[in-house]
């Protein structure tokens, strides 16, 4: 046989062998960050993970028909993946992180398994934990504060930690452990905040008001007693970082009155959803949601019902 023919046959056999070996699915996504400008302020959405939920877990009063119809209209089926997002704000003068992800804590819980990717995505986005000047907490959900520490150390060693006093009072009170001896969250929260308190880097705040140039706190209690949203403003553009006001984008824009047991005060949660959706649609704010589909950024339009218009990467 001529050498060329032998070579051709060898190549053919190799091709058949390769084709019969099916490639395994990698299931990997691109690094979870997304960037946009709000005036002169750079905003980076950071994903901490995606967690699977059934809608009825979050909105138990919604009927099965309501759920099926809403999910169909959103292109989803139960269960669906809920994004866990945080937001990094670079004002030009300060680097501020709003919420910190789970830090990989409580990984045995179905609510937190597979999360803890925030710091990896922070690196992918071109920043390091040491660069963060301030951390603003929307509320004490483990998926928002869990990332404050790594072991017993501060994940963000140079950052001032800020949160509403009404939110942190529950575990900062000296008698907190005695009044709620069975509440596992009291020591959990203490362990997360104590390294910052010990370093003189914890500064709670009292009311709505400015925190950094272009960023102000907006009290939105309901999901938790001191739940706080943050308004970013530059050159006439505004972005409202909502925190956990909306958990199910497919249903709670259309019906903000759907109650959820995830809200500590369900009526308060409903009132705040109505308030911020009315405000965001009237003022044409960009909004960012900790659990809206990553990057969780978009605008709200009011029609017969509110409608969610996501940004397109
Ligand atoms: Zn949350």
Structure summarized in a few sentences:
The protein is of the alpha+beta class and 313 residues long.
Describe this structure in words.
- It is a single chain.
- This protein is of the alpha+beta class and 313 residues long.
- The chain has a single domain (30-310), classed as Ribonuclease Z/Hydroxyacylglutathione hydrolase-like (Metallo-beta-lactamase, Chain A, 4-Layer Sandwich).
- The chain contains ten helices and 15 strands.
- The protein has helices at 3-20, 55-58, 64-73, 118-124, 142-145, 165-172, 176-179, 185-198, 249-252, 266-283; strands spanning 33-38, 41-53, 80-90, 95-98, 134-136, 149-150, 153-154, 160-162, 209-212, 215-219, 228-234, 237-243, 286-289, 297-302, 306-310.
- The strands form three sheets. The chain has a seven-stranded mixed β-sheet with strand order 9-10-11-12-13-14-15.
- The longest helix has 18 residues, at 3-20.
- The radius of gyration is 23 Å and the shape is globular.
- Bound molecules: zinc ion (ZN).
- Zinc ion binds at residues 141, 143-144, 244, 290-291.
């Amino acid at each position: 046989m001529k050498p060329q023919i032998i070579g051709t046959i060898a190549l053919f056999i190799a091709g058949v062998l390769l084709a019969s070996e099916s490639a395994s699915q990698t299931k990997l996504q691109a690094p979870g960050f997304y960037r946009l400008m709000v005036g002169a302020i750079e905003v980076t959405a950071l994903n901490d993970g995606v967690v699977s939920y059934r809608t009825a877990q979050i909105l138990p009063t919604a009927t099965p028909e309501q759920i099926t119809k809403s999910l169909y209209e959103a292109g989803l089926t139960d269960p669906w993946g809920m994004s866990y997002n945080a937001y990094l704000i670079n004002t030009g003068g300060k680097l501020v992180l709003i919420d910190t992800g789970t830090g990989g804590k409580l990984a045995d819980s179905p609510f937190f398994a597979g999360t803890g990717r925030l710091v990896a995505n922070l690196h992918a986005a071109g920043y390091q934990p040491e660069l963060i000047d301030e951390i603003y907490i929307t509320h004490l959900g483990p998926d928002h504060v869990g990332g404050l520490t790594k072991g017993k150390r501060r994940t963000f060693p140079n950052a001032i930690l800020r949160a509403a006093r009404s939110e942190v009072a529950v575990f900062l009170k000296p008698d907190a452990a005695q009044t709620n001896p069975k509440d596992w969250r009291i020591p959990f929260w203490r362990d997360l905040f104590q390294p910052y308190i010990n370093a003189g880097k914890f500064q709670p705040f009292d009311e709505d008001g400015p925190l950094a140039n272009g960023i102000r706190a907006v009290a939105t209690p309901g999901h938790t007693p001191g739940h706080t949203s943050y308004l970013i403003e530059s050159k006439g553009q505004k972005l409202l970082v909502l925190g956990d006001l909306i958990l199910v984008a497919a249903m709670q824009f259309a019906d903000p009155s759907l109650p959820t047991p995830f809200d500590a005060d369900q009526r308060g949660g409903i009132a705040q959803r109505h308030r911020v959706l009315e405000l965001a649609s009237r003022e044409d704010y960009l909004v960012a949601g900790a659990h809206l589909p990553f990057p969780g950024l978009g605008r709200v339009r009011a029609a017969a019902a509110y409608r969610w218009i996501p940004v397109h990467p």
